[in-house]
Each structure stands twice: as structure tokens, then as C-alpha cells.
Design a protein that fits this description.
This protein is mainly α. It has 2 domains: about 140 residues, Farnesyl Diphosphate Synthase, CATH 1.10.600; about 180 residues, Farnesyl Diphosphate Synthase. It contains 17 helices and 2 strands. It has a two-stranded parallel ribbon with strand order 1-2.
Length: about 325
């Protein structure tokens, strides 16, 4: 008999797979104690992301919807009124069928959230607060008026990467500690693991920013704090910062003791460092077209990680190999 809940069966199967894409490999690999809360948090975060990214809807409406969403996440109010707005104004604007279905299932996602036990519930609420804050900042910083805008400073970029991804590393660590005791190395403090996890998250978000640099600048957004003429130079500097963050991710993975959890945690890191290696070796015109690793590369990494996750040294060896391209 399946140990999945009703909500997990409804939302955690094909819909989760279709909106999470490569991250679904991680979600599917998680130990069952972590699979439900992390899958739910991911779906709710993707819902907020879709609201924020539906640019054809006015910024004021998107900000209002995110504010209402945040109130619901905190546990106040009923979901139907916002669900109706999303159905009427957002569903029809989705070119991706999975994103449309995610909007249609909004009320079900909130209902699932309200079945969570107090400890994972508090963790999910906290991480979603940060993610929604980051998305609202994004909308305000980059109005769709045809002008190219950049972030003002390195501090703004660091703040943004923490809000939308670094906080996820802290959330992940917190859930591992509470829901799967003994899964993390007891010789390392939870605070240290959270710091490494946050930097891994920031590194993974920087990968998204760096590989999407061409598309984003064409849309009027430059997350790098520089003038347009300096983008290529700044891009190279932030690629170095990204690599430094991912080194902390390697430390994090090496201090996960639970083999299945180590595998699940390592997958985004290994796919990320492979992407970094490909970006580093690509000419600038190719970078501006967007860098992705192939399905064959993904399959190869999955197979190699299944073996390497059995020990910390083997995991480092694989990471170094992928980092060299």
C-alpha cells in the first residue's frame, strides 16, 4: 500500500514532474521522510514564481496576488478568492501547459500545506516568505518598460540569490535535522551545514542568472551589478563567485551521512558544476544564446552519482572531474 497522502498523489506525480524538470530527479530520490514536505515547498515556490513571471499581467496585479499568497501561506484567510483570480487572469496566459495546471491546482496546494505537521509547516512557511520577498523585489526592480536595468551592487545580487535560493539550503538542512535525525554529520554543527547549504543554493541560482544572461538582458533585466558595456567582464567575475559557492556545496554533500539523501542532494550540485564547466569553455556569443547540458550528460551524471555517493572521497573525485569539463 502506498504511503503517499491524498494531496501528494494529486499534486506530487505528473504535475510535479512536469514543473520541476531536472529537479524532479532530486525529489524522487529523497528519503520518504523528506519527500512530501520538500515536494510541497517546491510546488508552492513554483506557483509563486509563475505568478511573478506572468509578465502580460500588470505588475500591480502580480504584486497584489503575491501579497495575498503570502497571507495564505502564513495560515490566514481562504484560498478560493485568489484561486479565482489566478484562474481568470493567469491560467489563460500560460504558454506552458504544466504552468497552467499549476495555477489551476492552486487551492489544492494551499490545502496540502494545511495538512503539514507543525515543524515542517513552520519551515515551509519561512522559506516561502523569503522566496516571495525575492520575487516581489524582482518585479519592483525590473519594470517592463523596455529599458535595460541592472542591480545596483554586489550586495543586492547576494541578497537576491539568498532570498530565492540560498534560504532553500537552510530550509533543506533544517528539515534533514528534524525529519531525518542522524542524516547529517554530527561533528559539524547545524549552523555550519546551513551556511554551506545557503552558499550552495546561491551558487545554483547564480548558474541560472549566468546561463540566462542573453535572454534576461534582451528582456530588460541584468542581475549583474554593472553597466551594459561591462557585462561580459562582470559575468566572468560572477562565474568565479559561483564556483566558490559550489565548493561549499561540495562540503555540504560530503557531510551528509544518509546515502540516499547524499545522492539526492548531490544531483543539483553535480549538474550545476557541469553547467559551469560548459559555460567557462563556451565563447561569449554561445553564452548569450543560453547554455544547457544535454540529456545524455544528465543521464551520465545520474549513473556516476549513484556510485560516487557511497563515499565522500568518491563524490569529490566525481565533482572535480565534472568541474574540468
Amino acid at each position: 500500500m502506498s504511503d503517499e497522502t491524498h494531496h501528494e498523489r494529486e499534486l506530487g506525480g505528473q504535475l510535479l514532474a512536469s514543473v520541476s524538470r531536472s529537479f524532479y530527479l532530486t525529489l524522487k530520490a529523497l528519503p520518504k521522510e523528506l519527500r512530501e514536505p520538500i515536494s510541497l515547498a517546491y510546488l508552492l515556490a513554483r506557483t509563486a514564481d509563475t505568478i511573478a513571471d506572468t509578465a502580460i499581467v500588470s505588475a500591480s496585479v502580480r504584486l497584489d496576488c503575491l501579497e495575498r499568497y503570502r497571507t495564505l501561506v502564513r495560515g490566514s484567510g481562504e484560498a478560493q478568492s485568489l484561486a479565482d483570480i489566478l484562474t481568470m487572469q493567469f491560467c489563460t496566459q500560460q504558454s506552458d501547459d504544466a504552468e497552467r495546471r499549476l495555477m489551476e491546482k492552486f487551492a489544492s496546494g494551499i490545502a496540502w500545506l494545511r495538512t503539514m505537521q507543525p515543524t515542517p509547516l513552520a519551515a515551509i512557511q519561512s522559506v516561502l516568505e523569503h522566496i516571495i520577498d525575492g520575487q516581489m523585489l524582482d518585479i519592483r526592480r525590473f519594470p517592463a518598460d523596455g529599458r535595460l536595468r541592472s542591480l545596483a551592487s554586489a550586495e543586492e545580487l547576494d541578497q537576491y540569490t539568498w532570498l530565492v535560493a540560498g534560504c532553500v539550503g537552510e530550509f533543506w538542512t533544517q528539515l534533514c535535522a528534524t525529519e531525518l535525525p542522524g542524516s547529517l554529520d554530527p561533528t559539524v554543527t547545524t549552523a555550519q551545514m546551513q551556511e554551506w547549504g545557503a552558499r550552495m543554493g546561491k551558487g545554483l541560482q547564480l548558474i541560472n542568472i549566468l546561463r540566462d544572461i542573453g535572454e534576461d538582458t534582451r528582456d530588460g533585466r541584468c542581475y549583474l551589478p554593472c553597466q551594459p558595456a561591462d557585462i561580459q567582464t562582470e559575468w566572468s567575475l560572477w562565474l568565479q563567485t559561483c564556483t566558490q559557492h559550489l565548493e561549499c556545496g561540495l562540503l555540504y554533500v560530503q557531510h551528509v551521512l544518509h546515502t540516499k539523501l547524499r545522492y539526492a542532494t548531490a544531483l543539483p550540485l553535480l549538474l550545476g558544476i557541469q553547467t559551469v564547466a560548459k559555460m567557462r569553455s563556451s565563447p561569449w556569443d554561445k553564452v548569450q544564446q543560453g547554455i544547457k547540458i544535454s540529456r545524455l550528460d544528465v543521464a551520465s551524471i545520474l549513473a556516476q552519482a549513484a556510485i560516487a555517493c557511497r563515499s565522500a572521497p568518491a563524490m569529490e573525485k566525481l565533482y572535480r572531474k565534472l568541474a574540468q569539463g
